[in-house]
Amino acid sequence: MATEIERKFLLANGNWRTKVVTSIKIIQGYLSRDETTVRIRKSGNQAWLTIKGPSQGISRLEYEYAIPPADADQMLMTLCDDQLIEKTRHLVPVDALTWEIDEFHGRHHGLIVAELELPHEHTAFERPDWLGQEVSSDPRYRNSYLASNPFSGNP
């Protein structure tokens, strides 16, 4: 059993861009977006099936399994209702932790969200100057919500 503990923030400015060490293109879709979500994600030649349980604060159960990329392609195109999320994930290290900054494309162009996975709910972390409003508890910033609700500039 694995637990995901994640904080999510909007960005105050673009100062993070000079600190990016890696950028990864991601496409994902959802087989289920209820309390328990089931996601298919593909990045390059790798793909995963991820099951996430209901949120309890900033924590939730998460199970992730590698799957064949060809299977992911088939599921994304046939089972995800054409409600795909396309984004570039930029990795930005700050102290001992790494921020994942998701820059959305297509229907969600203009949305950029910074996520930080923590080892414990109360782990202290540095708040870089580019960090804006926290949206960890706002369901409108969940990828599962965005899959069927295009970003309009005011989610």
TrEMBL record:
InterPro entries: CYTH-like_dom_sf (IPR033469), CYTH_domain (IPR023577), NeuTTM/CthTTM-like (IPR012042)
UniProt signal peptide: none
Coiled-coil parts of chain: none
Residue span(s) of domain CYTH: 2-148
Catalytic residue list: 30 (proton acceptor)
Highest taxon in the source lineage: Bacteria
SMART domains: CYTH
PANTHER family found in the cross-reference section: SLR0698 PROTEIN
Protein's name according to its UniProt entry: Adenylate cyclase
Species annotation: Pseudohongiella spirulinae
